[in-house]
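Attaching the record inline, Q. Sequence:
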Amino acid sequence: EFMLVLTDIANPQQVAKVAQRLRELLQPPFHIAGHELFVSASIGASIYPTDGDDADSLQRRADAAMYRAKHTLSNSFQFFDPAINQTALERLRLETYLRRALERNELDLYYQPKVNLAGQIVAVEALLRWKHPDLGMIPPARFVPMAEELGLIIPIGAWCMHRAFRQVRRWQRPGRPIAVALNVSIIQFSQPGFIESLRNTLEESDLDPSLCILELTESMLIGDQASVTQRLNDMRALGLSLAIDDFGTGYSSLGYLRRLPISILKIDRTFVSDIGTAHDDSGRAIINSIINLAHHLGMHVVAEGVETLPQRDFLQSVGCDMIQGYFYSEPLPPPLFEHLLRDERLPGPSWKEV
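Structure, as predicted:
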């Protein structure tokens, strides 16, 4: 970031012209070490004395306008608006809290079971949660994108893997192995040291790699196919399983299913939620097609977001390998999940029937 101080400005239009000129200067590509790079700029401006009568206030409000520009459009420009000031300040405050959340032990993992056709818990998904001492539980949809934007997803993701692998290692019982699934951010996936970090975490946890599942989104498979394939093969070489999360909502080409070492498809909850609605027929047809496709390719299928008895019954009838959702259990903190494992009792067919 950098700041410009403009003097002798007669009106806001002059500021806007300077911002436009800056954007134009940044449009041509930069050539660095043989690579052609394109950059964009998000610009915010505050005006003296309307937006403040001291340097600190003017800088804070220009910063707030810049954040507004950043989340409006790429390469955007915004003047400070008092109406957005509170939102920007709340975001800055949340960013500050998030930077400290890991060291203050405010993050935790909750576990949601994946149940097979026989009604047994065969896997869990580890889901990140943040409980702030003052703000309470903060939804992942609110802080995970922020962690990715700030680069905090790298240490947070490493912590999640270390915590989940060690926890699930303690839950193993003779003859009843339980696998653990974790979501991987595209930021983690693209990190140069990701594979080595993954290898070290597996060794430290002493968890059988075959019980580890990393869930990727379809959008992560777009790009340099040679590079993506190599990275996935390196991950599989560690003994891990790879799953495609939210299958059917992203990358439209199915060719990658034959080329890439994917072993699990997760049916997106939007298709599951169609069952029992006006879109019932299309939802069932899509799910049936995904399951047939996966099984013909030697893959397993997980359906997520299962909440009702008709949904569960249909998925069982078409041979869905694992079912995940509130029909069986919400995500639970470790002590409560241990009770679920120990009791070996899942809710019966009438539970949560809608």
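The CA atoms of residues 29 and 35 lie 10 Å apart. The chain has two domains: 12-80, 99-343.

More tomorrow.
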